[in-house]
Design a protein that fits this description.
This protein is α/β, with parallel strands linked by helices and 257 residues long. It contains 10 helices and 4 strands. α4 packs parallel to α6 and α5 crosses α6.
Length: 257
């Protein structure tokens, strides 16, 4: 691939425990190159489908500035120009050139990207990459319950994190090409979901949907959804619950549009 030719990257965005792993594996089976060096964690035996070197750098950046990804605090105003960020950027440029430099259509998934997206936009610009953003949306109550089981995180705190991650992902990706899918829709009718994504992005999957069907159906199964808040109820008092309820309602309208 010539240096003047733009490649495209599908960036999967979503809060932790929102179904981004299932979505990433699905588009991987449809031909999106996610690399080969995947993070293998104990909680998700079916795979996270995160490029581990990239994820490690993202995690370390958040630790350096905020202590951990669970911090609800904003990044410092000057974080993009900080030496820590500039050093991380050089490492990321080297990794992405090495692993995706010859790939015309590739992808990345890491929930931390929601917060770190301004850094990656500058990286994509330097690499001459056209990013497309794929948002995976899940009921925030289901997300919070899943985090409570995995990390013993308070439900109310997880709801705040959900709002922070989703809002940052939308804000920073808004000027670019975006697609939206709900985790519930992906599990209930993955073919309709990937067809919708294809139309939203205006880009065909490298692999035919029907020919990929057996592999995807083997991967997509009900056990991927540990919690399902069928009535979409968000219970609680105060402004934060109103903001979350309103935000999730708006997201559903975007997905169903």
């Amino acid at each position: 691939m010539s240096s003047a030719e733009k490649s495209r990257a599908i960036i999967v965005l979503g809060m932790h425990r929102s179904g981004t792993s299932a979505l990433s594996r699905t588009i991987n089976l449809l031909g999106i190159d996610l690399g080969n060096d995947f993070y293998q964690g104990p909680v998700n035996p079916r795979g996270y489908w995160e490029h581990e070197p990239v994820m490690r750098i993202n995690d370390e950046l958040l630790k350096q500035f905020l202590g951990f990804w669970t911090s609800p605090d904003p990044l410092p105003a000057d974080w993009l120009n900080h030496n820590i960020t500039l050093e991380a950027k050089e490492k990321l440029l080297e990794i992405l050139r090495r692993d995706f430099g010859e790939s015309p259509l590739w992808g990345l998934k890491d929930p931390r990207l929601c917060v770190l997206l301004p850094l990656y936009l500058s990286i994509f610009d330097e690499l001459n990459v056209e990013p497309m953003f794929l948002h995976c949306i899940r009921n925030p109550v289901d997300v919070a319950l899943s985090l409570q089981k995995r990390d013993q995180t308070e439900v109310e705190f997880s709801l705040v994190l959900w709002l922070r991650y989703v809002c940052e992902a939308f804000y920073h990706s808004y000027p670019y090409r975006n697609a939206f899918v709900s985790f519930d829709s992906l599990l209930s009718d993955w073919k309709a979901s990937v067809t919708s994504i294809e139309k939203q992005l205006g880009h065909s999957w490298p692999n035919d949907i029907e020919s990929s069907s057996a592999s995807i159906e083997q991967y997509i199964e009900p056990s991927l959804r540990a919690f399902s808040n069928v009535d979409n109820a968000l219970e609680g008092e105060g402004d934060i619950f109103e903001w979350i309820t309103e935000s999730y309602s708006l997201l559903l309208k975007v997905i169903l549009y």
